[in-house]
């Protein structure tokens, strides 16, 4: 018999734990009664039976969002800003409970989960201010007696498709600018981590956001999830799709949205190069790799995936990194001192395992880790994998071309700047890149040459609410956050007045 876990007893405010969808201001089960089990990846324990909603309920959520759009968009920017500031305050007030929910359903350590809540809340604060500054303009006309005025208006109903690796922040990064712009939203929560999305719906309800403005639909992976995506893409009442996930799914959504010509913004797969030049401060570089590679157990789209180290410092750097990685405590995210939690599911473990075995079979050596960890508490297979460092990694192996999405740090050797930049740019995707150097000229030269949307120089952490987040090539298009993030949810309208 499967083990169960009562998540509510861990919360100060148990009402934040919801296991129903949220449509038009109502908490609803699947209309056909179907459910699927949600489990804790650290223990295998069942957390809840979640609604496995059909496509018809996604359409209902879209209808609700469309009906709520006129009144929400008619509010002043100051009124919508006030709602976002209230959400920000509630997120800060409930950071422990929101972090606990996130930790238990996703697996990341509690301290890291709380950090994500703070990061998610920052998008509320940022967009509360940005919503007040979506300026239009007056453009001089070549025709006498004519005036051109450009205003910005909300694009309409937005479908937000979010991933499991940042269950709170990926929602707030999309929802906050959409609401600030005057749009209404339908959030398709990830099957692996729906509780964080539903907890945000609870907060929206508490501050009085009107029914239909925010809707959350939930379903398991498979046919119903595919049908939900199809409904969001094909329904003409949806004007915009914002998606974070894999490049392959992004291609599919783009194809499915073509019949209704929706505005799209995609943050897709990454394969970040992390370059350490021979003049780098090695202690700082090691800290940068730890921060970039092992956050969320390596399950981030901007984490270091290909680590290039100059041959002059290769052995020294590898030794320093290995020592730091040995100190990373692995375990249940709710346990004190844990820095690396489980991967979100067994499929993730199997991919890391495949990458390690492939590299080793081609000549790589394991310095630290290299295998999955047995868990006495887990039901069935364990989702834990040892933080791993590989050296002497060949150019031709899976980890050189595929995003691992796990706690695996492969070290590739290089000698020449042009060569390593070309190798870094050889990927079909271009989300983030990193490099460490003390050479000012090189820092500008390499940053401009890397074919990515974001570059970290002498740092492994780049994500902030105030910066434009997004990629180039097949990492997608559009930007989230920063001064232009809210523009993704608006249209420019020209008003030309004659006879003046």
Automatic annotation (TrEMBL):
Keyword Oxidoreductase: yes
EC number from the UniProt entry: 1.2.1.16
Catalytic residues identified in the record: 267
Keyword Cell membrane found: no
Keyword tags: Oxidoreductase
Example GO biological process: gamma-aminobutyric acid catabolic process
UniProt pathway: Amino-acid degradation; 4-aminobutanoate degradation
One Gene Ontology CC term in the entry: cytoplasm
Reactions that this protein is recorded to catalyse: succinate semialdehyde + NADP(+) + H2O = succinate + NADPH + 2 H(+); succinate semialdehyde + NAD(+) + H2O = succinate + NADH + 2 H(+)
A GO term for molecular function: succinate-semialdehyde dehydrogenase (NAD+) activity
Family: Belongs to the aldehyde dehydrogenase family.
Designated name of the protein: Succinate-semialdehyde dehydrogenase
């Amino acid at each position: 018999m499967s083990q169960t876990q009562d998540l509510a007893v861990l919360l100060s405010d148990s009402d934040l734990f919801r296991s129903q969808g949220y449509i038009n201001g109502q908490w609803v089960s699947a209309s056909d009664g179907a459910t699927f089990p949600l489990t804790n990846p650290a223990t295998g324990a069942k957390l809840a039976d979640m609604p496995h909603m059909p496509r018809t309920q996604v359409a209902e959520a879209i209808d609700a969002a469309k009906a709520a759009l006129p009144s929400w968009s008619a509010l002043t920017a100051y009124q919508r800003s006030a709602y976002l500031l209230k959400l920000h305050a509630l997120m800060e007030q409930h950071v422990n409970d929101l972090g606990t929910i996130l930790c238990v359903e996703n697996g990341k350590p509690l301290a890291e989960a709380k950090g994500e809540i703070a990061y998610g809340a920052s998008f509320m604060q940022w967009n509360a201010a940005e919503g007040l500054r979506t300026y239009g303009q007056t453009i001089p006309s070549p025709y006498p007696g004519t005036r051109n005025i450009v205003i910005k208006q909300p694009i309409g109903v937005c479908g937000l498709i979010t991933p499991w690796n940042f269950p709170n922040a990926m929602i707030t990064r999309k929802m906050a600018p959409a609401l600030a712009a005057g749009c209404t939203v339908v959030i398709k929560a990830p099957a692996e981590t729906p509780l964080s999305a539903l907890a945000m719906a609870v907060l929206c309800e508490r501050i009085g956001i009107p029914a239909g403005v925010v809707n959350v639909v939930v379903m398991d992976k498979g046919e119903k999830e595919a049908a939900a995506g199809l409904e969001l893409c094909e329904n003409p009442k949806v004007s915009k799709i914002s998606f974070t996930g894999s490049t392959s799914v992004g291609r599919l959504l783009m194809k499915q949205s073509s019949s209704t010509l929706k505005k799209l913004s995609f943050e897709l797969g990454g394969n970040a190069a992390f370059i350490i030049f021979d003049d780098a401060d090695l202690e700082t570089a090691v800290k940068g790799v730890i921060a970039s590679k092992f956050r969320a157990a390596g399950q981030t789209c901007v984490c270091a995936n290909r680590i290039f180290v100059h041959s002059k410092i290769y052995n020294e750097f590898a030794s320093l990194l290995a020592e730091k990685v040995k100190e990373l405590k692995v375990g249940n995210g709710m346990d004190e001192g844990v820095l690396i939690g489980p991967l979100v599911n067994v499929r993730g473990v199997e991919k890391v395992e495949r990458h390690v075995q492939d590299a080793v079979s081609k000549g790589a050596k394991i310095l630290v880790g290299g295998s999955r960890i047995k868990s006495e508490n887990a039901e069935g297979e364990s989702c834990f994998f040892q933080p791993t460092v590989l050296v002497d990694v060949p150019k031709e192996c899976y980890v050189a071309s595929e995003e691992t999405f796990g706690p695996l740090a492969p070290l590739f050797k290089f000698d020449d700047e042009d060569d390593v930049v070309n190798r870094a740019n050889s990927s079909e995707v271009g989300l983030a890149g990193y490099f460490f150097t003390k050479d000012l000229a090189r820092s500008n030269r390499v940053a401009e040459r890397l074919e990515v949307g974001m570059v970290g120089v002498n740092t492994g952490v780049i994500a902030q609410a105030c910066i434009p987040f997004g990629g180039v090539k097949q990492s997608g298009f559009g930007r989230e956050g920063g001064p232009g993030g809210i523009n993704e949810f608006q249209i420019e309208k020209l008003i030309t007045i004659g006879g003046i």
